[in-house]
């Protein structure tokens, strides 16, 4: 049996609640207005249905809605009645920034001109099973899809391991440079996906050059050339040492070699090197993102980029460490700026 709680209200009396354990018959005093509510105790297995009578001395709801049932005391429903319900199926995220629309009137003959000079970039995720696309920023609300997309990115990183540049070129048809540069610079992306896209960027484009430099890290053979003979102990007459790795140098470290993107090709030599990526643009983005993270981040921030301080700083520092090993950050200004922000943080 299940405990059934019914409430009734009278205009001349206070609220009355009545409980009964037998759901077969329940009678209320005349003049009470039933609230049409039943509460069954959780975990009951004996009660299959609880039926409540209508309000005493009152016509059913169908007599008030349908003209043909105005004097019928029995609740009726016409056979051609269609009951429609609103169910939330899909919602879309509003963009953080909107298109800048410019309007101008050229002349009375040509009329008005409406144009958007700066396009608005967004990244969508396609779900083949549901045949729909959604904004990648919406994955922060869906934990299942977010974890699936993160593990897919980790699978891409594993496929590019050990210098598998052929797979790296093939993956560029799924994740091109514009997508990677957009995701690493997006402040509203989920922290898990933020870390995954940073790892994919380094695995596809930078890992091979980084490992080649690390293999020659313990080689101290200096080639004797005219350029080597021109190297002095101090860079200028002030006799002050500069930062290591800055200025004129000579070593046997391999050069940075990249090949243009080629998704489909019959030449095996096209896949010997990693897919090319604009290192200058990547260097500027890395320094600017580190600057913003130090200036606007920290443990005292309520909503940091990525959801936590770890997701905000660790991917950027890993990218800057990879660029330092590759020798991309060679100017003294860039190194001083990076080291100063790291020391402040």
TrEMBL record:
One of its GO terms (molecular function) is ryanodine-sensitive calcium-release channel activity. Residues 149-333 form the Ryanodine receptor junctional solenoid domain. One of its GO terms (cellular component) is sarcoplasmic reticulum membrane. It comes from Salvelinus namaycush (Lake trout). This is Ryanodine receptor 3-like. GO terms for biological process: release of sequestered calcium ion into cytosol by sarcoplasmic reticulum; striated muscle contraction. InterPro entries: Ryanodine_IP3_receptor, RYDR_Jsol.
